[in-house]
Amino acid sequence: MSGTKKKMVVTGTEGQVARSLLERARSIEDLDLVALGRPRLDLADLSSIAKSLISEKPDVIVSAAAYTSVDKAEEDSEAAFKVNGHAPGEIARVAADLNIPLVHISTDYVFDGGKNEAYTEGDITAPAGVYGHSKLLGEQTVREHTTNHVILRTAWVYSPFGKNFLLTMLRLAEGRDVINVVDDQIGNPTCALALADGILTVARNLISSDAPELRGVFHAAGSGSASWADFAAYIFETSRRYGGPFAEVQRIPTSAYPTPARRPANSRLDCAKLEAAHGVLLPFWKQCTEMIVRRLLVDR
Ligand SMILES: NC(=O)C1=CN([C@@H]2O[C@H](COP(=O)(O)OP(=O)(O)OC[C@H]3O[C@@H](n4cnc5c(N)ncnc54)[C@H](OP(=O)(O)O)[C@@H]3O)[C@@H](O)[C@H]2O)C=CC1
Ligand SMILES: Cc1cn([C@H]2C[C@H](O)[C@@H](COP(=O)(O)OP(=O)(O)O[C@H]3O[C@@H](C)C(=O)[C@@H](O)[C@H]3O)O2)c(=O)[nH]c1=O
Ligand SMILES: [Mg+2]
């Protein structure tokens, strides 16, 4: 990125990805990052979107805020579709009007999980639940409004911030010796801080170049795959090593852990396209898990 300082706006202020971007962007001198959330920007109020975004005069927008409660979305589908489906279209319309690129964050839950290998960007989407459906609509409304976009599908995001599986496991382990965790859903645990580095690279690439091959949908998840039980077991292995809470993981099938939303059995993402086009490859999940657990327990 050359010339003057650029300004990035990310939607949401307290989200894992927004907070990770804020942390990572601090060390980038030619980039200012502003996080825009409620009440100024409320994705459930489409009329608040253009006003608040335009007033920031951004050079690039990262659309990270979303309705992320997968189970709650099943009974609250109107809100989920508005926030995850229609609001991204409005953000994309603004980006098109301002003639700036948009990086929109989507999810592995757009897939039904029936494939035996990792999903590529060209694979057919067929969400299993309302959250996935609403996020898929968001991909479509983004595409409808601007070609100058990157849709980044990520997965199983964890970080030291907010609500996520890693923090839930550490909390549960404070009060239990054994925790039941499903072992027949596999995916790619993704560290939000590493994802933030990837988003920053992608955004800078889009600002610097009009090349069409940099645009479109890309998968962006941590390297290596795991079941939720594998992930939990490694969280506890690491936490125990650093003197933190740990529990024994009892591996169970999904049928023994009923939830309102069905989740994909396999949602592994093939991320080769992102590496080829943008030079972004996210680190191995175990390496990042260890880094986050260490940060929570040792470096605080
Ligand atoms: N978490 C995960 O495991 C995964 C997430 N994703 C996608 O990645 C993106 C980032 O996720 P993550 O950072 O984990 O999300 P979080 O759940 O940590 O944060 C969601 C953010 O969205 C904001 N938000 C929710 N509703 C509204 C609204 N009506 N108006 C404005 N802001 C709103 C929240 O605001 P507030 O702080 O005020 O509540 C919060 O800042 C999302 O698009 C998500 O769909 C994809 C795959 C996996
Ligand atoms: C807390 C807990 C969960 N589980 C199971 C339930 C579920 O199948 C799986 C993960 O549970 P969670 O509710 O933490 O995760 P979930 O809400 O499904 O996470 C998803 O969030 C959205 C936003 C995404 O986009 C996805 O990529 C994915 O990260 O683990 C257990 O087996 N034991 C437990 O004690
Ligand atoms: Mg966020």
Automatic annotation (TrEMBL):
* Annotated ranges, domain RmlD-like substrate binding: 7-295
Q: Which cofactor does it need?
A: Mg(2+)
Q: Which domain of life is it from?
A: Bacteria
The catalytic activity of this protein is classed by the Enzyme Commission as 1.1.1.133
Free-text remark on how the cofactor is bound: Binds 1 Mg(2+) ion per monomer.
Q: Which UniProt keywords apply?
A: NADP, Oxidoreductase
Instruction: Tell me the pathway.
Output: Carbohydrate biosynthesis; dTDP-L-rhamnose biosynthesis
Q: InterPro entries, alphabetically? A: dTDP_dehydrorham_reduct (IPR005913), NAD(P)-bd_dom_sf (IPR036291), RmlD-like-bd (IPR029903)
Catalytic reaction equation(s): dTDP-beta-L-rhamnose + NADP(+) = dTDP-4-dehydro-beta-L-rhamnose + NADPH + H(+)
Q: Which GO terms describe its molecular function?
A: dTDP-4-dehydrorhamnose reductase activity
Pfam families given for it?
Answer: RmlD_sub_bind
Question: What SUPFAM superfamilies does the database record attribute to this sequence?
Answer: NAD(P)-binding Rossmann-fold domains
Described by its record, this protein's role is as follows: Catalyzes the reduction of dTDP-6-deoxy-L-lyxo-4-hexulose to yield dTDP-L-rhamnose.
Record-stated family:
Belongs to the dTDP-4-dehydrorhamnose reductase family.
Q: What is this protein called?
A: dTDP-4-dehydrorhamnose reductase
Taxon lineage: Bacteria, Pseudomonadati, Pseudomonadota, Alphaproteobacteria, Hyphomicrobiales
Q: Which gene encodes it?
A: rfbD
